Amino acid sequence: MDGTEKIGIGVVGYGMIGRLHTMNYRQLRFLYPGALPALVLRAVCTSREETARAAQEEAGFCTAVTETEPLVADTELDVVDVSLPNNLHRPVVEAALAAGKHVYCEKPLAGTIEDARAIKNALDRAPSVRFGMVFQNRFFPAVMKAKEIIDEGRVGRIYTYRAEYLHTGYQSPERPLSWRLRKEEGGSGALADLGSHAIDLVRYLLGEFETVQGHLETFVTERPIAHGASAKGAVTVDDVAWFRATMAGGAVGTVEASRFATGTVDNLRFWVYGEKGALHFDLMDPNYLEWFDESLAGGSYGGERGWRRIQTVQYYPDAKVPPARSPIGWNRAHTENQYQFLKAIAEERDPSPGIVDGLRAQLVIDAVERSAVQNGRVVAVMPE
Amino acid sequence: MDGTEKIGIGVVGYGMIGRLHTMNYRQLRFLYPGALPALVLRAVCTSREETARAAQEEAGFCTAVTETEPLVADTELDVVDVSLPNNLHRPVVEAALAAGKHVYCEKPLAGTIEDARAIKNALDRAPSVRFGMVFQNRFFPAVMKAKEIIDEGRVGRIYTYRAEYLHTGYQSPERPLSWRLRKEEGGSGALADLGSHAIDLVRYLLGEFETVQGHLETFVTERPIAHGASAKGAVTVDDVAWFRATMAGGAVGTVEASRFATGTVDNLRFWVYGEKGALHFDLMDPNYLEWFDESLAGGSYGGERGWRRIQTVQYYPDAKVPPARSPIGWNRAHTENQYQFLKAIAEERDPSPGIVDGLRAQLVIDAVERSAVQNGRVVAVMPE
Amino acid sequence: MDGTEKIGIGVVGYGMIGRLHTMNYRQLRFLYPGALPALVLRAVCTSREETARAAQEEAGFCTAVTETEPLVADTELDVVDVSLPNNLHRPVVEAALAAGKHVYCEKPLAGTIEDARAIKNALDRAPSVRFGMVFQNRFFPAVMKAKEIIDEGRVGRIYTYRAEYLHTGYQSPERPLSWRLRKEEGGSGALADLGSHAIDLVRYLLGEFETVQGHLETFVTERPIAHGASAKGAVTVDDVAWFRATMAGGAVGTVEASRFATGTVDNLRFWVYGEKGALHFDLMDPNYLEWFDESLAGGSYGGERGWRRIQTVQYYPDAKVPPARSPIGWNRAHTENQYQFLKAIAEERDPSPGIVDGLRAQLVIDAVERSAVQNGRVVAVMPE
Amino acid sequence: MDGTEKIGIGVVGYGMIGRLHTMNYRQLRFLYPGALPALVLRAVCTSREETARAAQEEAGFCTAVTETEPLVADTELDVVDVSLPNNLHRPVVEAALAAGKHVYCEKPLAGTIEDARAIKNALDRAPSVRFGMVFQNRFFPAVMKAKEIIDEGRVGRIYTYRAEYLHTGYQSPERPLSWRLRKEEGGSGALADLGSHAIDLVRYLLGEFETVQGHLETFVTERPIAHGASAKGAVTVDDVAWFRATMAGGAVGTVEASRFATGTVDNLRFWVYGEKGALHFDLMDPNYLEWFDESLAGGSYGGERGWRRIQTVQYYPDAKVPPARSPIGWNRAHTENQYQFLKAIAEERDPSPGIVDGLRAQLVIDAVERSAVQNGRVVAVMPE
Question: Sign of the C-alpha dihedral, residues B311, B316, B322, B328?
Fold first, then answer.
């Protein structure tokens, strides 16, 4: 970089996650000084002019629009950030690709497997465009360290694993319907919303899924259509999803995604059990990776095996603030995901995670849903 | 009791578990002073005279025998303690019942569902005989407290649960075959050996199983026939078992029993997620029950919900030593199980857990095995 | 607010902490939308023109200066943020006060008790000026919840407490001298640097210190003057500080501040033991307050007493993003401290923590140092 | 051993601890088969004939007495187990030594430093007699592993440490007086009762104490003379004791012993911070030693440093049951202490811990008490 490069950014959707991305774009230069071209917040797009204007004011976007077309027509805009509900991803991504803009897309890739494949096909026809996924949980140092330990062969052959993404908050039958509880709007329930993160982490760490055997359950099947309403409507997505999977590499494991796990907060957890060692992580304890080294068996008093809570804290190679040895929270992984995407854009290479990661997670979701409707029989994950 | 009552005990099998039971019979009067009749160690039975003699010497049994017959013929013997491998339970129990002796039987009830049913039938024909099972994990104060909280309705409707019994130690392919790895000798693998405990705890806390969907996996399919031997033999039992179950009460949960869970020690763990609260226990942290009370939601800073580590330590209502407020270990639950069995014998009532608990756990094991050989389809647990 | 209000900010010092404050000023509007006037980054001041220019560029300050005078002369500047080494606080604060500017001052208040008193005196002569301290650890929801529980009388009479701030990194005798290890530059060692945070938290939660008994220790008394240098210089501050204190309210406790606590990261921890309950917090586990309610004694299996890990996560009453139920890190408390300061400025009231908090922490530091040089005798904390 | 050896044991005092020792003597042969001579429970001595008879009946002692003389006159009695209140240790030990009996003495060695020295002097005049102390907390595998790691030099130079023994239960001012709250009967309060264990562990791990600076506090200074009584009497011992100590090896640390630490159960904890590593143990988590290896610094994502929870569980070299990989509780360390004492007797060598350990702990207690009455000035620990 010679200091004159810029990346123009357009944010489509300004709910909680769009606002968060925007806030983060504004702070990247402090966290990673000198590492990126200047970021210019070119445009924000929301469905209503009022909210678009408020977003512009809040964040200092150059323009505020209510349609995708003017946004992707901006010649100084390089990246379209898609922070929309799942079933709205496809048209916006297609418009961005048609205009030659890079895309940064929230998970899951799309609301349906058809949309996901269509996005992939569109991208294949737009070779100069780069596509980044938001799977931010890859970007905790603890998770990156887990990947490193596995890749170095220190876990050895992996026998089994367990991944869970446990939330709470939908237990009360009085909680009314929302788009997240209707298939036609939200696309899917806990499986896509939470399970997509668990699936991506398993893929990131252990490789590809081969077959799955799934079950979906809806505990509260109808809910008030609004707070306090007596009229009720049907819940058409899963409250909880379970599946057992066999991996291409031979490991067997189980995944659970739940919106009914009383007592949990944002507990994305995994355990990997291998020949030479084992790993554990929990997003609610994000500063540590737990690592068990089987080679420490033997010796007095049973040897020295035990789970080591590796203090990964916020050791991001390129980051300057906050100080490395201070605890991090949920948003820190989001900023690193954004940073890595933009760095790839600046360096003209494909970001990771990218389109294949988005599509493959969707294919696993699809397989679990196909198994569940067939009373849990074993089904193969479809190829790309 | 007028102080003259005695209970005569015969121990059949004097491996690790038989020796442990014997040690515990000798210490019950200290832990629970005045609560039981005098316990008399009448006889020990092992397959070889030499080991039987050594056991007699070590523990002070009145006699040592190598066959069941003379043992059950002892008129001053009231209880037969069955601490044998699973597939040897049936003949010894049948002999005991025929002689009118009470039985204290290690888990699982038997090596096969046929043997289990046969034991139940024999017991039905011996109405004066009482039958106690060893499912000692019910007897941690933390587990009893969990039961109490559920029974009081404080968890409310239970949505999901998770139970795991995770061990390690079989990962090395160099570890040779043993009876525990051959179906014809051990009856089953991780499912019966470890899973039976998890199944019993789930039944104890949540009621009956209705359907299951299971999978069994053997990661190391052949092993040396002895340490260092080049000849190999087939492993014919599961290394790891998984199943998903639907309970009669509507809860859905998963169970995993593993001998390949690197980093675990003796980790029998459960989580129960309900409408009003949640519970967690881990046998490696046996002094605490974790309880989450959903009603503490609301109020400043998000309210005061959180997992409370209830200090159950060793609060056994009838116990005198060790002091209640000191940590306990694995064997303490065994002693309480033996105490509760003998107290029921003294009070002429059926012990709990009893034959039904033994049989029903076996029926769940059977259902999981039937599902597994049918590629994981959903199967119903058979009635008693 | 009518939407036209602005607060002009000048940052003096742009090391790690000045940069962090600046990044945070830029993100406050996202975290707390609509809650504050517009913040304008008027000026940055560093000792060298080059670093000042770089800071201006990075953060978008209107001007960059190398002296305090032009900064405080800016009529549109309302707040001077003092992010300098301790012994440079006094002259900058005095200049700000003389110009009628509000001050946001990093801890500790000053390098010496004389400087601290001088600042307080200058402030007393500037009644229209508001003074805020950075004691950010007050601003974890877990800590605010602890304060609430104590203030509601739920802990009852407090008997004892323990506060620790444990760091590591100075153990290697090869680590060279720096200003933090020389009294003439850094003012003090672990006691002021880390201990000031622990002292403030104890005051915040338990009230005023009355007497202390202290000890300071320097384990590595001389160090290379630069990396790899053979020449050595004296370390003139404490590596570790301990003190026992009696509080005005009758509680007795101990405080430890250490730069030599191998295995720690940023472990600011406290335990409060009272008549009716107990509290625990650890900055490395910032999403939870641990609370023990003594009233849960009694009942079956020893009752239901236990430490409850209250999930405070990021429940800030005025905050919008990140979502409340996601884990937070170290910087989140900094942003809340800045927010609360600016809100007080906007509402024309004194911020909390303020000058009295800065001064009283310094008086405790002073008392510990006086005790330590008198071989640990009990000394009274001086009045303001 | 040729199988004919026997050790005759007399237990003096049959309160909770005397009963526990007795129960343990009866189970040692199961835990450590073949490792010890036969143990014969020769005699029990309590102050009242009724309780002595009951103890005899319960445990099968050959005789029951109410005076020390007949007990020590038994020619087949080899060991006198002193499980009496502290101020009664001296006369019984002296009688035992005069009769040439070995002694197994509960902690602390005596009620006063004068008594402790007298016991030591009597022992010096009885060279054929062996003296064992009960400091059972040395006998957790986790603690033994800590000792091993330190002795191997893996912690390096030790800078600081912290030891705590925290109990609860005396907070209620309604709890009436007892001998444990009166100096003339109990000798001392939390310092001797709990602190003696902490002191012994520090000595065991880190070597000798050199100077101390102590403070004792009594929070509830008078109490009802009996449950519900309106008459009150003075509490004449400490509720809580604190001291800072400098060790002969250069380490500086603090010790706290408290009966007022709400929320604790039996929390004997230590932390050791050294040049190359750190250690942590908590008796309420007795199956693990936490070990931090500083040499794992460096490398990607901040290296791999972290606290490892070494699974020591119950790896006792000579033990057979319970299985090594199952969790242990408080009493397990008692049995190992008894085993090690008896093994030393059988092998005709001095047990460890022995008289020097008892006396030196008492000298530290004495120094803390002397410092406390001099307003906390630094005092030297007296030589033996």
Answer: negative
At residue B117, the pLDDT reads 98
Structure tokens at A367: 């397989």
> CA nearest B42: which of B16, B3, B74?
B74
Residue B278 above 70 pLDDT? yes
Residue B1 pLDDT > 90, yes or no? no
| ipTM at complex level | 0.95
The gap from C-alpha A7 to its chain's centroid, in whole angstroms, comes to 23
Of B313, B329, B331, the CB nearest to D265: B313
pLDDT(D95) > 70: yes
| Tally of CB atoms within 10 A around A347 | 9
- Assess if CATH 3.30.360.10 describes domain A141-330+358-379: yes
Nearest to C273 among D260, D278, D307 (CB): D260
Measured between its terminal Cα atoms, the distance across chain A in Å is 36
User: How would CATH label the architecture of B141-328+358-379?
Assistant: 2-Layer Sandwich (3.30)
What Cα–Cα distance (Å) separates residue C112 from each residue in C123, C131, D295?
Answer: 17, 18, 37
Cβ separation A16–C323 shorter than 8 A: yes
What span, in angstroms and rounded, lies between the C-alpha atoms of B266 and B282?
9
How many Å lie between the alpha carbon of C307 and the closest alpha carbon of chain B? 5
What's the CATH architecture for D6-135? Answer: 3-Layer(aba) Sandwich (3.40)
Average pLDDT, stretch A124-151?
A: 97
pLDDT digits 0-9 by tens, A19-54: 999 999 999 999 999 899 999 999 999 999 999 999
pLDDT band, residue A96 (cuts 50/70/90): very high
Which CATH number is associated with domain B6-137? 3.40.50.720
Closest-CA distance, C257 to chain D, in angstroms, reads 11
pLDDT band at D1, cuts 50/70/90?
Answer: low
- What stretch of H or E contains A343? helix A330-346
- What's the token pair of residue D232? 């009150």
- What proportion of chain D, given as a percentage, has pLDDT over 70? 99
Q: Please give the Cα distance from A157 to C174 (Å, whole number).
A: 41
Q: Pick from B20, B30, B314: which is nearest to D23 by CB?
A: B30
B302–chain C Cβ distance below 8 A for any pair: yes
Backbone angles phi, psi at C30, to 5 degrees: -80, -40
Report yes or no: D341 and D132 within 8 Å, Cβ to Cβ.
yes
Question: What's the predicted TM-score (pTM) here?
Answer: 0.97
Instruction: Residue A203: name the closest of A366, A362, A349 by CA.
Output: A362
D137-332+348-379 has which CATH code? 3.30.360.10
